[in-house]
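Hi V.,

You were right to ask for the full record rather than a summary. Here it is.
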Amino acid sequence: MPISATPSRVELVDHLVRTRIAGDVATPRENNLSHYRQLANGVRNFWLGLELGDRWTDEQDVLAVMAERVGVNDDPEYRYGQDTIDPELTVDGLNRMAARLRKAAEGRQRVLFATGHPGGLLDVHRATAAALRAAGCEIVVIPPGLQTDEGYVWQVADVAVLEHGATLWHTHSGEPMKAVLTALERAGRPLPDLVVADHGWAGYAGRHGVDSVGYADCNDPALFIGEAEGVVQVAVPLDDHVVSPRHYDPMVAYLLAEAGL
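Predicted structure:
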């Protein structure tokens, strides 16, 4: 389906709030705090492919990062109810991502797209890949026959995904990206200049030393920590699975316009 006409910043902020991509999002506060706690307790599934060591063992430090970079409520005593994503921070993140996409286009760089949340973000990545290809970038084709403990690593509409049981799989794991980058290196092929992704795909790429930008929800703190530490270049805060994937179209239109694509 075609991307909507390009909104202004003000129009996009209004759209993000109306569709609950940002503003009062569906993810409840108790879910957010549970994920922050599990990251702090060293549960690797919540590290999204990053290596955090013992630097983030205090849940309150994680909350502080999320309040600053996402706009969740910063009160540690607020334990239940609605939580938020600041739509202005979402648009700020899109602007930072657009600057990196513009650099990729100007340099005709090799770009790899991937998603651990295909139900919401597959078409966001597909449309961005199409725009960069039209600008002269090489969209990286992943080696065939890759798999992890969770399933097979495939590429659908230029976007790497995890397939399990004939279904595109939601995954937080960094293992699929590890499989791709390892296979490229073993084949003597160059690594991407840029990875545009989410979840563990984005986290592991940054950890591996590849420029990585991506999207993350308010219950996925690792990518924002990665950005704070300089391992991930850009983490855009948003609800990564709203009621209709078409709600992301104006956001993508804004992103591509800001990137000059």
